[in-house]
Amino acid sequence: xxxxxxxxxxxxxxxTIRQIGKGAFGTAHIVQHKVTGExxxxxxxxxxxxxxxxxxxxxxxxxxxxxxxxxxxxxxKGCWVxxxxxxxxxxxxxxxxxxxxxxxxxxxxxxxxxxxxxxxxELLSALAYLHRSNIAHRDLKTANILITGDGCxxxxxxxxxxxxxxxxxxxxxxxxxxxxxxxxxxxxEKPYGTPNDxxxxxxxxFELSALKPAYQAFNMAGLIKKVTSGPAPPVPPxxxxxxxxxxxxxxxKEPDMRPSASELLDLDWLQVCVxxxxxxxxxxxx
Length: 286
Known about the structure:
Elements: E1 14-22, E2 26-33, E3 39-46, H1 52-67, E4 76-82, E5 86-92, H2 99-106, H3 113-132, E6 135-136, E7 145-147, E8 153-155, E9 162-163, H4 184-187, H5 195-210, H6 220-229, H7 241-250, H8 261-265, H9 271-280
Helix pairs in contact: 3-5, 3-9, 5-7
């Protein structure tokens, strides 16, 4: 699907409810369709204020999202250009916000392991789907995981994502992402591929378990040292050996030693949650 083949959604069809986000280059509003009453999020990006690289990132996110169809990937609804310089993108509304905010509200109470297993299958299924499509997300973190009103998790923010080359050795070497979630390869400016996303999701898994980031430091030099040569952070003892071993495997420093998303979905002890996930999806296999 090309840029001009995307679903066109006239702005006049929607009523603005309220603003939910504002940045240097745009805004996000909850809008409601005037006929159906359905609510969405309208992201408006001011292309004129962006550099060429930033505009490329905005358009890349739009094109990637428009071609993705998965229960746990934020759903693209349509787009249009407003006033010749504002790129408007309509996506589904996730009423419960993002995972980062929800975790901060917990303060000290551990998330139940069974609940996390169910979440984990959702995220692994979405990541396996992306990797089968040769897409690396490259910015997996709790703030980029949204939650719908009925508790379904959605991977979002594909502005840093990339399509890997159609070769056996699919790698990229651009240093992008959020520092606390960057893998050793990214921080050392080495080529990396889909195992980089496994590391990022491993950091998310640790944060779900410990309610704090896996790696923290006062400066970038200290963070690089911790990530590249420090020990793996310990998962709280309230979780099972299976869970702690899962975190350890995903945060293995050697990328070739990390399991893939598909391999993680095949873990024996996770199959009850996988079965429940498939049942909820009404026969759509992960």
